[in-house]
Protein 1
Amino acid sequence: MNIQKTTNNIFKNRHVLKSLEFISAHGVSVAAGTSLFMSTVVRPIAILATPDVEKENKQYACANSIGSGLIKFGIVAAVSLPIENAIKKIDIDAAKYYKKQAVNSLSELTNNVFDKKGYAFATQIIKLSTGLITAVPKSMLTIALIPVLMDKLFNVRKKSQVKKDNAINFKGGSSGFISRVLSGILQNESFQKFVNKYKSNDKNIAKHMSAATDILLSSSFAIQTNKSKKIKENRKKALIYNNVISTAITLLGGYGVDRIIKAKTDKFIEKFSKINADDAKLGKYIEGINILRPAIIFAAIYYGVLPMFSTYIAEKIDKYINKNY
């Protein structure tokens, strides 16, 4: 077997290239889809299999995992997809939305404001920022959904019900309007200076934005859980500890593993770039690879490796604190 020929065929395979292009355009959506499966199937199985943990604490942890996955996916459909589609409209018809420079094409847009790398970095920041912007509403909705799931899945009822006026609705507006708003952001001089200063760090933007989102989510979740009147008081601390431990270890482990794998990925990208050097969409393929790598690493750690450990440790910390304080 000719290994070089096989590698070339894989790297130039239209399905592989289309997938990477899709990930580049819809990075948040891909991450949400992965999280939906992992949080509603893989993580609950691992949590329920954890030994020496009170049954109801495991049930609350499962409800949190499932609720979080469902809410994240719903918010992506309502908020992230319209923004991703709006960016795509700007890519296709820059002149329509970017009138300040009176450009006729995306190539003129990037020449006047950013180089191609800078433009890709700028639009990626905007797309990935939706997770950060919606972190607090997501934690609030997850907290509201936990009692409902506890009732439906485990038949654990609470007298108080989730009030309708606590619900937060997200509605995606016209993508044309959103494109005009986003083109305004792209024209903002402060944003342009920021992008051009930090565009050399474009390989790590997905990882850093994901980490910032996780920290904000975990903090908001702890505050909202502590304030909630719909979650049993004796279950709150274990639920908070579980979430904080999971987030902390995921970030520490994720960055460590990513640093090790990144060296291998850089060699892969170098080879991939040579094989597809004549492809105009090479930048988007590489962007897709850099989004996919940390997404897989963080998801594998958070949903696959950690649930048993964090659930067990949270239980022990909760019991120790209740016993000694």
Note: Confidence is low (pLDDT under 50) at residues 159-173.
Protein 2
Amino acid sequence: MSSEKQTISVHTARTALNRDPQLRQWAEQWLKSRERIDFMATPGATEGDFEKHWPYVRPERMHDGAVAAVTAFHEQQKG
């Protein structure tokens, strides 16, 4: 038996997000905070600018970040 972390597929992560509203809400907030960090590093960026930016990038971030978010959620639940 391997001690390496088991990775999940994008399909598994997206299915979990679609079936568990609590997980989806947590994942969205986790991904939003990561996006905020990157966005606010831009010179002149404001919180208002970010709030206008987030709805446009949210679908892509939720898809691209599904595996990382679901994995982070499960790690948080363990620890």
Note: The first helix runs from residue 10 to 19.
